[in-house]
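P.,

For your records, the input lines for the assembly:
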Amino acid sequence: MATATSRLTRVQAINWNRLEDDKDLEVWNRLTSNFWLPEKVPLSNDIPSWNTLSEPERRLTIRVFTGLTLLDTIQSSVGAPTLMPDARTPHEEAVYANIAFMEAVHARSYSSIFSTLCTTREVDDAFHWSEENPTLQAKAELVLERYRAEDPLMRKVASVFLESFLFYSGFYLPMYWSSHARLTNTADLIRLIIRDEAVHGYYIGYKFQQALAEATPQRQEAVKAYAYDLLLALYDNEVAYTESLYDAVGLTEDVKKFLHYNANKAMMNLGFEGLFPAELCDVDPTILAALSPGADENHDFFSGSGSAYVIGRTVATQDEDWAF
Amino acid sequence: MHPPRAASPELIYFSTRSGNTHRFIQKLDLPARRIPLERGAPTLEATSPFILVTPTYGGGEVRGAVPAPVIRFLNDDANRALLRGVIAAGNTNFGAAYGLAGRIIAEKCGVPLLYRFELLGTDEDVTRVCKGVREFWTRPS
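Structure tokens returned:
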């Protein structure tokens, strides 16, 4: 495949007052205003809740978070930096620097959870497990292969799949605990990560679509086919990973629906149609509500069944009221 | 394909350069006009009752959730007078702020938040909104 792209050829002092793409500033502002650190979340309030979990439930939770740590580590140290040389603008490079740092914060956050809730022995066991687990290592390898390859478009595809799909077999569990009123502070921290990943996937996907639009129709078709192939390879592995973790607690089928739902969103971030039909994406409403309070409510005014749609009271509106 | 000045009910929408909402609108195949992205561009004038379709901005705060060009468009009394409902795009990853722009506009303008969808919208979203919009314009008010 041709790999021509308009790379920056030399380093220039970055001028944020001269934008080539205002999306760069919009996303920079969004990411910097979303900045957070794990110390902000009172994780120690979850200690009593943690003590109510059974030993297998605790082991599952630590393993899930260790798997997420691995993905964040990859994205921080390899994924986001790998995208920098392909940047179309200096501002895009700066956004990737922000993403790389924030992924390091995410990876660091799991260790905060561990040091608050778990014994050193439990955590050491989980890190050992992560190095030996074939499906977790396969997931890392599938992505790293694309990061090392010479195709800048596929680097972005792999990056969006990591940000918008691969995390979700892990994110499911804290949402599940939260929906059962357990580890709710930990879930608050995970929601901050989930919010960040949405912006990352959106932005990398946007830059992917810009580059793809400039490619020849043949190359566009090839990249699209390649993206679907990679998604399916990752999905097959994700199912095996999910089974290895969640079969013991009987949640595998429910997690898979969450995977389908998020795989479709990952494809949409790349500008492609979703792969999985609606009937495979009917995520448990309590999980959806844990992710987005109110998202399970029916806002479908059209169907006439919407109990929760908003109809506001009319208020006299002055122009200055619109300064949201 | 779409007349510049629609005489019948229409959709008016905003979409940034990323074009997610634009692509959703294209799939609907209903009369629709786009609020200009550029600050200096002449703003759109509503000429008949319309439903507004807008993405949600920002990281979950009320401030900044409604895109500035949409605010400028709604600042026009004549436009606001013809607004009948709002449809919001968003992402459930933003938690309680999913589709927040739609809720803010609905409350401020006293119109129903008709629907929310994520990113480009799924086929099911397209079917529901297409059917819903057609029926909405024929129901007795």
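Two observations worth noting. Chain A touches chain B through 48 residues (CB under 8 Å). Chain A has a mean pLDDT of 91.

Regards
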